[in-house]
Backbone:
């Protein structure tokens, strides 16, 4: 992989044969595992400005109408996050000369608090080809990592690493984005737009000298100087969402009144599931249903394939295609082809449903066929959830082949998650597409489809639980590691389901020492499971005041869900407690409320039922400093390994959804929260 230094640049074409579509990843880590940032992309013309507000892509405008830019979202990496952006460079308009890739922090955070800041560019096969380690960014709330720019007919990447103290609003404004929010202006009439550059270019304007092996540097086009409005000028306005050319259609959340005479009448469905009697029937039906919807709804098809290097173009999908392979032809479950500017991107699809495991020999055969025929990818699709650094199937890659084939995995839970985000929160192009996605989602969620996602803790689950009960489970037992891996898959799936329902990002927090790879982290967690009999996880939810902690205690058979909320900065402790109790009016009576005090393991605690008439009972009597409150709910744990009503997986899923719906939403509604697109940018502008 090619390493860039600040100010250096490199052409993409010499690094790989597949750079028409690339994926840029921005990564960071924090010692607490809670540091986060939002990526943004700006398309600039020859004058260094956006052509219009639609050229600014961020959390509220994540996808370009032509598919040239798509924000793919975050995935956890150790103690940090990787945020990925897909670019189809063949679809970038000709009058766009530069693509700026940046990120911004919120709630007063700055990039100097984060570690391991880096930009990585991967080619169409998914292989990383360029990396730029930013180093110490300083106390800036927005950071330009790098830019992709044209030189004639070639695309190049430049490492920048330049910061803005004024955050997202200052960065967007200086590149010509129209920023507007009347509410923010009324709240602080003195707010001004202007960005302070966290780092200034050298006085002589020369680029940084490149070490041996780096390509020759070109003078970097200067980032725009911060604009400082005159005294008395109107405050900068931040608009909630850049203008878009299409109106999005979202189906109403309330169902229309049915005309059925009785509840026994079943609504006619586009994708029926009553005739599915075997695993083979389920696989064929699920593959055909999914691929046909992907081809008919560009937003959905693009969303599922962009991360795998597919360009934005005309998509066609096929099932039961016969391909020669020795004496016996092979029939992959599906084929996806995308055409862009006369070039084809092809992926073979191998599907499993109802918990069936992928077969290594089948996947290997498809990898060999794809390599011989010049296809770009093989995509496996099953109920299982892939883990970082732990492939579901091991395949052999022939290093002598010039053409490289990427192997990707997609879970049915991720498919349902993306469909849910589009239909319920982000919207699609027209009502027919919205209805078609609704039918797909209904099919995937039906019990007969076999597409329910991860639903079995594996053969090691019962022996491990028995070993914990009778205290015979020893550290180093491989069965404990299997349970830890299954637990991580379950947690990832819970995040997908909850995030799809809320329309917000929900990610697992993985706290680990810097430099420890995922396999070593899981071994350490397996040893801890043998010692204390607990499975632990933390979920970070966008818009919530803290992380949602989940602990499955296999010794007591209880699942504990909890969240810690900070104490207000002003006011009196009794007032804080009374306000908290009022906000939890609809929470379960057996909710545990604990006061967190400075320098102590814990303060007073009690159930909500007992505290409602006497809230002063959890105020420390010795005037100790209150730092926050911990809210916890305990529920029984399912005993079986599967996803049945009495199963462990169902009990964890139900416990998280119950706690979020009855507790977290109420404390998040009044607690200081992460700002919206308009409010956050306005606050950052005011801070600058």
Residues:
């Amino acid at each position: 992989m090619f390493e860039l230094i600040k100010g250096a640049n490199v052409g993409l074409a010499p690094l790989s044969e597949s750079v028409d579509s690339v994926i840029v990843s921005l990564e960071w880590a924090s010692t607490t595992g809670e540091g986060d940032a939002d990526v943004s992309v700006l398309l600039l013309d020859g004058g260094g400005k956006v052509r219009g507000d639609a050229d600014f892509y961020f959390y509220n405008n994540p996808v370009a109408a032509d598919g040239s830019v798509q924000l793919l979202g975050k995935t956890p990496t150790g103690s940090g996050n990787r945020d990925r952006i897909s670019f189809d460079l063949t679809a970038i308009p000709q009058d766009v000369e530069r693509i700026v890739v940046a990120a911004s922090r919120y709630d007063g955070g700055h990039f100097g608090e984060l570690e391991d800041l880096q930009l990585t560019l991967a080619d169409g096969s998914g292989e990383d080809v360029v990396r730029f380690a930013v180093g110490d960014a300083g106390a800036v709330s927005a950071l330009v990592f790098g830019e992709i720019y044209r030189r004639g007919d070639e695309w190049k990447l430049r490492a920048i690493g330049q910061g803005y103290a004024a955050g997202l609003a200052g960065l967007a404004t200086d590149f010509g984005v129209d920023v507007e929010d009347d509410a923010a202006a009324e709240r602080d009439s003195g707010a001004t737009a202007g960005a302070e550059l966290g780092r200034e270019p050298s006085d002589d304007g020369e680029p940084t000298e490149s070490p041996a092996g780096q390509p020759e540097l070109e003078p970097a086009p200067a980032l725009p100087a911060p604009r400082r409005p005159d005294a008395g000028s109107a405050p900068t306005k931040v608009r909630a969402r850049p203008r878009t050319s299409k109106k999005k259609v979202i189906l109403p959340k309330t169902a229309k009144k049915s005309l059925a005479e009785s509840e026994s009448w079943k609504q006619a469905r586009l994708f029926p599931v009553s005739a599915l009697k075997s695993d083979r029937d389920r696989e064929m039906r699920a593959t055909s249903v999914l691929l046909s919807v992907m081809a008919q709804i560009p937003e959905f098809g693009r969303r599922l394939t962009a991360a795998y290097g597919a360009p934005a173009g005309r998509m066609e999908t096929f099932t039961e295609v016969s391909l020669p392979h020795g004496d016996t032809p092979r029939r992959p479950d599906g084929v996806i082809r995308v055409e862009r500017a006369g070039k084809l991107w092809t992926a073979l699809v191998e599907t499993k449903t109802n918990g069936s495991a992928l077969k290594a020999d089948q996947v290997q055969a498809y990898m060999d066929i794809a390599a011989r025929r010049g296809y770009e990818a093989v995509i496996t699709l099953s109920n299982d959830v892939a883990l970082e650094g732990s492939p579901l199937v091991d395949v052999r890659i022939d290093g002598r082949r010039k053409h490289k084939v990427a192997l990707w995995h997609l879970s049915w839970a991720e498919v349902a998650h993306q469909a849910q985000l589009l239909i319920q929160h982000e919207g699609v192009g027209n009502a027919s597409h919205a209805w078609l996605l609704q039918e797909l989602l209904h099919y995937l969620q039906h019990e007969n489809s076999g597409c329910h996602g991860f639903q079995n803790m594996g053969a090691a689950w019962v022996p491990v639980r028995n070993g914990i009960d009778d205290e015979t489970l020893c550290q180093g037992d491989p069965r404990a590691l299997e349970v830890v891996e299954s637990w991580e898959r379950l947690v990832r799936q819970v995040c997908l389901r909850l995030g799809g329902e809320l329309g917000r990002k929900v990610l697992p927090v993985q706290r680990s020492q810097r430099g420890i790879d995922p396999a070593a982290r899981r071994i350490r967690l397996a040893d801890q499971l043998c010692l204390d009999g607990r499975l632990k996880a933390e979920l970070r939810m966008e818009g919530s005041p803290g992380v949602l902690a989940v602990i499955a205690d296999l010794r007591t058979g209880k699942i504990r869900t909890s969240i810690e909320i900070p104490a207000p900065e002003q006011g009196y402790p009794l007032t804080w407690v009374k306000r908290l109790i009022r906000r939890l009016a609809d929470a379960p009576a057996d909710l545990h409320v604990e006061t967190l005090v400075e320098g102590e393991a814990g303060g007073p605690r009690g159930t909500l039922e007992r505290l409602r008439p006497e809230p002063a009972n959890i105020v420390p009597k010795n005037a100790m400093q209150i730092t926050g409150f911990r809210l916890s709910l305990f529920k029984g744990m399912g005993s079986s390994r599967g996803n049945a009503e009495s199963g462990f997986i169902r009990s964890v899923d139900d416990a998280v959804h119950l706690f979020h719906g009855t507790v977290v939403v109420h404390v998040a509604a009044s607690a200081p929260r992460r700002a919206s697109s308009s409010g956050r940018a306005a606050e950052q502008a005011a801070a600058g």
